[in-house]
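Thread: zinc ion complex, take 2
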Amino acid sequence: MTTTAADDALARAAAAGVHCLPIPTPFQVGRVNTYLIDDDPLTLVDSGPNSGTALDALERALAAHGRRVEDLGLIVISHQHIDHLGLVSILARRSGAEVAALDLLAPWVGDWSAAMNADDAFAERMMAEHGIPEDVRHALVGVSQSYRGWGAAATVTRPLADGAELRLRDRTLRVHHRPGHSPSDTIFHDEERRIVLGADHLIKHISSNPLISRPLTPASVQAADGGGGGGERAERPHALEIYMASLRATRAMADVDIVLAGHGDPVTDHVALIDERFRLHARRAEKIRRLIASAGAGGSLTAYEMAQSLWGNVAVTQAYLTLSEVLGHVDLLVRDGQVVEQRDGGVARFAAAG
Ligand SMILES: [Zn+2]
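Output below.
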């Protein structure tokens, strides 16, 4: 039998009391990794979606470690996506566990339905502004609403500040806010054991772009937009730039051997993987720069037109994903002075600079 670096990393984490419990989800991403930390309090990082199948799988996984839901003393939320937080309220109610999450995320999950309504409204505005036709927009909002049942509100009893310490009996986890994949991504670093609980901040087999998401606070929009803002325009965070800044911060971290991911295998060389991501984004930005240049002098394209010319008439459910992908790289080109944004009525168009 041969062991891989991933097996070794999971074995080393388990020896340190951190056990990976994969939970099924109905989503394309497949299983979500939750982590049981054998410490005092007994801690679960993330929960799986709000479904009977997920709860059953989690109960069986806990039983394999001689534990029950009722034994949990602390539940930690890594970020706002429903495959990670859907079961939190049920688990907290049954166990009486405290719930810890980034302080900025606490009001968001506390009033989850309102947050989802606001997110849908934000996404619809964003799609209209970038040329996605009305029928596609309505279909996408319908898809989002059909997913609602896999999430749920939860009450955060221990809000965590960026940079704070989360202390358990035998270990200390340093809290780092690393927005990008979502606005609330939080990673937890055990500096002594050189292990990071990284959730979806860095996933080995997925290099998808950060989705453009409604910011957690109005202030963070202003920060992302440099305090400006243009009246009628919907404020849009530059998700890929934010994500790349977060990746740079993680790349600079010492005392890291293993990043335990929210999906798939652990990452055992985070610097090499992050460098690979940076090269990938540089290549994609160049591809989009050439596409915009192909519109010729005086020509311009909407983000939706670019997505169509790159991927054809993609499935409706992918339209927001591809819009985010295009805009993330367009933002890099605008920042570098290679592309300029123009407004045509309420719609944004992009043209080669100069
Ligand atoms: Zn996620």
